[in-house]
Design goal:
Blueprint (H helix, E strand, L loop, with lengths): L9 H6 L2 H7 L13 E7 L3 H17 L3 E7 L4 H13 L5 E5 L12 E2 L3 H6 L9 H6 L1 E2 L2 E2 L2 E2 L1 E10 H6 L15 H15 L4 E2 L9 H12 L16 H16 L9 H9 L5 E5 L3 H6 L4 E5 L9 E4 L1 E6 L6 H16 L1 H5 L4 E2 L8 H4 L14 E2 L12 H15 L4 H17 L10 H4 L20
Parallel strand pairs: 1-2, 1-3, 9-10, 12-15
Antiparallel strand pairs: 3-13, 4-13, 5-6, 7-13, 8-10, 8-11, 8-12, 8-14
Helix pairs in contact: 9-10, 9-16, 10-16, 10-17, 16-17
Length: 466
């Protein structure tokens, strides 16, 4: 389908009128759409390259399923999206299907704001629980009911400029980055790249409004030491002082030694790497389209295991069924048809950098041909999501608050020890704050600690446990 056609489709109209769609959620929602078709409303928060990829998938689904009247609505990413979605679920007249970050499930009222999937209906459509990484799929389950079906995982990755790295002698004979196995080796690589270019070798978001990348950097390297922030039930602070301080001191050295750009916001960090002189960029994998479009000579790889374990911070886009007081059989089945179809077509979704959670996709020839997207696919076995609590997950209070604290470590306005004290203070306050949605911690129902997709629970050290 030509996405540039001037015709204003029903889907395109809804994308431009998210507020109107929310208002309609408070009215009776018939299960039939145009010309007697089954109505299926779908809310998501994807913009930019992700939005374009999702538009293509939505259009393709509509062409293959003329019996379903699919209305896809793009809403503003972050807190505005989750506020509208929770309001719609609380009213019982929400869209039939929506996107939710998996780590946010604990605070999103499973059983109250969300309805469970029928796994038998998904099996009838060729999708089973055994086709996902076990722990990621289980994270969507509460009290034996499946409330979230993962579409992908979106981890922190390491981008590298191939021309700069070649000049610095950091590439192997196959043209890919030579293995980096420790923090010392990483610092040596940064020094070699800086010597070759005369500029800091690493850029990443360090400051700016609602800056969360400093938190994601900390979470990645802290997880490699086996550290946790919260207990498995989401009720106690388990931050290990010694491990946390080791990581914060490492982060401080990166900028203090001039190896990393000290003060840059998110758009600025993209611009710095796109300028072509910086060797490395640490970020989520979703900027692959940005650098590809700019024709930058770059590739991507997993974040190296600098502190022992190969784990990396991540979250997961997942599908959920927002609560409806009266969900028709036809609409319920259409929602399952849509989710199964999206999973089976997630090669197209992977073009934006995300690692498909539907495991059969990872071995498909057309996925393996995606470069550099398929180069870091093995990270699916080592992603670590936040421990279950109402205040965690993408765009969450914890990410924003700890991002602001750890930003100071990178910019030099906070000492590592001072940042650790402030982080613990803010975490305790979050733990003492009631869940605004009233669902409370569900760690007991989830029955495990943070996801280590290799099958083991991670536990906090004793150094700073409270």
């Amino acid at each position: 389908m030509n996405h540039d056609e001037p015709r204003l489709s029903r889907r395109k109209l809804l994308v431009g009128t998210g507020g109107l769609a929310l208002g309609a959620a408070g009215c009776a929602a018939p299960s039939f759409g145009a010309e007697g078709k089954t109505r299926l409303r779908y809310w998501h928060l994807f913009g930019g390259g992700d939005g374009a990829n999702m538009t293509g998938l939505v259009d393709a689904f509509g062409e293959e399923h003329p019996e379903i009247d699919l209305e896809a609505t793009q809403l503003q990413w972050g807190t505005p999206y989750y506020t509208k979605l929770s309001m719609a679920g609380a009213g019982g007249r929400a869209p039939e299907v929506a996107v939710l970050h998996l780590a946010r499930l604990a605070g999103f009222g499973p059983g109250r704001l969300l309805d469970p999937f029928d796994l038998d209906l998904l099996r009838e459509r060729g999708v089973g629980a055994d086709q996902f990484p076990e722990d990621i799929f289980k994270r969507g389950s509460v009290d034996g009911q499946q409330y979230a079906i993962p579409l992908d995982t979106h981890p922190m990755v390491l981008y590298y400029n191939t021309e700069v790295c070649e000049k610095a002698g950091l590439l192997g004979g196959d043209g890919t980055l030579q293995p980096i196995g420790s923090a010392r080796e990483f610092m040596d690589a940064l020094r070699a790249a800086k010597k070759a270019t005369g500029v800091p070798a690493l850029c990443s978001e360090t400051t700016g409004p609602d800056s969360v990348t400093p938190w994601r950097l900390f979470a990645t390297f802290y997880s490699q030491l086996g550290g946790t922030l919260l207990s498995a039930d989401g009720k106690r602070l388990t931050l290990d002082d010694a491990k946390a301080l080791e990581i914060l001191e490492f982060m401080a050295r990166l900028t203090a030694d001039g190896l990393m750009v000290r003060r840059v916001d998110y758009p600025g960090s993209i611009g710095v790497f796109n300028a072509g002189k910086t060797a490395f960029h640490l970020n989520g994998e979703w900027e692959v389209s940005t650098f590809t479009t700019a024709k930058l000579p770059f590739s991507m790889t997993r974040v190296p295991a600098l502190f022992g374990r190969p784990t990396v911070q991540a979250d997961s886009h997942s599908f959920v069924l927002p609560h409806q007081d009266s969900r028709s059989d036809a609409a319920h089945e259409a929602a399952h048809t849509f989710v199964a179809w999206m999973l089976k077509h997630s090669v197209d979704w992977a073009k934006g950098g995300h690692v498909p959670a539907y495991l059969p996709t990872l071995t498909r020839p057309d996925y393996l041909e995606l470069e550099p997207q398929s180069a870091y696919r093995s990270v699916i076995d080592d992603v670590v999501l936040d421990q279950p609590a109402w205040f965690v997950g993408s765009a969450s209070p914890m990410w924003v608050q700890l991002g602001a604290v750890f930003s100071g470590v990178l910019t030099g306005s906070r000492s590592p020890a001072g940042a650790l004290r402030e982080a613990k203070k803010r975490l305790r306050k979050l733990l003492d704050t009631p869940d605004p949605l009233g669902s409370g911690p569900v760690g007991d129902a989830l029955g495990r600690g943070p996801i280590d997709a290799r099958g083991s629970e991670t536990t906090g050290g004793a150094g700073g446990a409270v």
